[in-house]
């Protein structure tokens, strides 16, 4: 039996498995609206989710929000650091037993009093004891204009690379920036301005050897990827000449074979691009639609180089005759060459999006921002944790059924056939071969045998989350004379 490569996350063998929904849960306090923006998983399996929390969904006075979950899904601690102004956490990283976070804060005193609250933003970086949740230090700094820390990355040299954007002055406008901070105190040792306006640094991640770093962002309204050293000095830079405003790179993955995979929005489209370790384009996969749009926010790699992309896509169901549906969580699996294996969008009537995805040997963990209320109740935002577990295709209990229990019927009489699959296993396509040259698709189906004889009824099933070709044991029918 020929099997296509299917996207099953983090398995020793990426073929012949189905992703079964094992568990899902909402996280957060009932009195607050929590919006996750990032997540990281420790070597021990703990999960830390970062973002921001509001008393009301549209409040501009948010606080940073952090939650640590143990490997069995239990809450270890939860924090809402912040001050009197709007605060938001954008990225988290773990080194040894310390959790580092970065974002931007409106609580510093560097802003003119007449500046609107929503425009007050300073760089904000902090360190927390991973086990206890105790704040070790936090540092805020910036100009009277907008300053935002969007990403951070520990280095082997007891420093942190913090990337984002700053307004140096009103003439220069928005400019990308990389700060080098002491990991022990948070004090800024060095600042490197990107040198292009407008620009920003969106993500920084270490190369496999750990001494250099890949960063993504935008400059002059175009996406870029670049390699920098621990001081922020640029080794090479590749600017996307084929995707213009409003293109944004949100996701960055450095694969085990040295490729650089990036994803985000390409104009009104969304997609992935793969580059060599020196920035040469290898392949690109773009989702294009005249009616829908979307974005990719995070990437993970499974066995055999399978790529898992998480983000959002615009829902197909109309909210009204003038407005198409809001954002839905979107998940897809691709081969290492960019061939789509499967994809799915799911969500409710409000905007929801995937934030972070990580894989282990036999599971996929998805963190998303999702509505935690029924549609008739007021909107309430929480972090949503989805665990998908891999099940071998041959272990899925599938049965072929017919409305002739004895498996004997006279020729000329219609027979109804269907397949039975366990709850949670979602077939995408069911194809029938009735053994007399006739075929059909779907379930249930009807077929009439015209000639007496013995026939073997076979089915091929394709599931939505892997298992492209599953052949349950056939059934035999004895067709007698009328």
Supply database-style keywords.
482 residues, four-stranded antiparallel β-sheet, 2 domains, Immunoglobulin-like, Methylamine Dehydrogenase, Chain H, single chain, mainly beta, 37 strands, disordered N terminus, 56% strand
Q: Provide mean pLDDT, rounded.
A: 86
By helix and strand content, what is the structural category?
Answer: mainly beta
Number of strands: 37
Q: How many distinct folded domains?
A: 2
- Poorly predicted spans: 1-15
CATH domain class name of the largest domain: Mainly Beta
Shape, principal axes of CA atoms: elongated
The largest pleated sheet is described as: 6 strands, mixed
Beta-strand percentage range: over 45%
User: What is the CATH architecture annotation of the largest domain?
Assistant: 7 Propeller
Number of helices, where a helix is a run of at least 4 consecutive DSSP H or I residues: 0
- Cα distance spanning the termini: 36 Å
Portion of residues in helices? Answer: under 10%
Which fold name is given in CATH as the topology of the largest domain?
Answer: Methylamine Dehydrogenase, Chain H
**What is the CATH homologous superfamily assignment of the largest domain?**
YVTN repeat-like/Quinoprotein amine dehydrogenase
């Amino acid at each position: 039996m020929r099997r296509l490569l299917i996207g099953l996350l983090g398995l020793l063998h990426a073929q012949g498995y189905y992703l079964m929904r094992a568990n899902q849960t909402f996280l957060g306090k009932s009195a607050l609206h929590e919006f996750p923006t990032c997540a990281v998983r420790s070597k021990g399996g703990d999960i830390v989710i970062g973002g921001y929390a509001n008393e009301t969904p549209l409040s501009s006075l948010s606080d940073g929000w952090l939650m640590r979950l143990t490997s069995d899904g239990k809450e270890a601690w939860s924090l809402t650091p912040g001050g009197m102004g709007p605060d938001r956490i954008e990225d988290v990283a773990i080194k040894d037993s310390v959790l580092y976070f970065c974002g931007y804060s409106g609580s510093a005193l560097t802003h003119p009093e007449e500046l609107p609250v929503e425009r007050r933003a300073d760089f904000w970086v902090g360190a927390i004891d991973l086990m206890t949740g105790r704040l070790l230090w936090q540092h805020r700094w910036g100009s009277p204009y907008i300053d935002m820390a969007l990403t951070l990355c520990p280095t082997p040299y007891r420093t942190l690379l913090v990337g984002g954007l700053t307004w140096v002055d009103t003439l220069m406008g928005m400019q990308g920036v990389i700060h080098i901070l002491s990991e022990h105190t948070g004090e800024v040792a060095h600042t490197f301005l990107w040198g292009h306006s407008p620009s920003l640094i969106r993500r920084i991640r270490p190369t496999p050897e750990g001494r250099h770093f890949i960063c993504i962002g935008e400059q002059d309204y175009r996406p870029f990827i670049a390699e920098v050293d621990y001081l922020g000095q640029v080794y090479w830079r590749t600017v996307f000449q084929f995707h213009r405003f409003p293109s944004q790179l949100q996701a960055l993955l450095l694969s085990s074979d040295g490729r650089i995979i990036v994803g985000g929005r390409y104009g009104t489209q969304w997609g992935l691009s793969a580059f060599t370790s020196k920035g040469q384009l290898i392949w690109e996969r773009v989702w294009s639609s005249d009616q829908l749009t979307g974005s990719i926010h995070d990437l993970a790699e499974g066995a055999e180089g399978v790529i898992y992309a998480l983000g959002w896509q615009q829902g197909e169901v109309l909210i009204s005759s003038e407005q198409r549906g809001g954002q839905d969580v979107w998940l897809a699996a691709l081969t290492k060459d960019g061939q789509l294996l499967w994809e799915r969008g799911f969500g409710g009537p409000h905007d929801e999006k995937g934030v972070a995805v990580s894989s282990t040997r036999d599971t996929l963990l998805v963190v998303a921002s999702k509505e935690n209320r029924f549609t008739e109740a007021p909107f309430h935002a929480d972090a949503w944790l989805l665990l998908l577990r891999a099940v071998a295709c041959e272990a899925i209990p599938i049965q072929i059924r017919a409305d002739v229990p004895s498996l004997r019927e006279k020729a000329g009489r219609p027979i109804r056939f269907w397949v039975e699959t366990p709850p949670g296993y979602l077939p995408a396509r069911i194809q029938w071969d009735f053994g007399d040259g006739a075929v059909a698709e779907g379930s249930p189906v009807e077929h009439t045998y015209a000639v007496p004889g013995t026939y073997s009824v076979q089915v091929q099933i394709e599931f939505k989350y892997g298992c492209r070709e599953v052949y349950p044991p056939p059934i035999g029918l004895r067709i007698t004379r009328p």
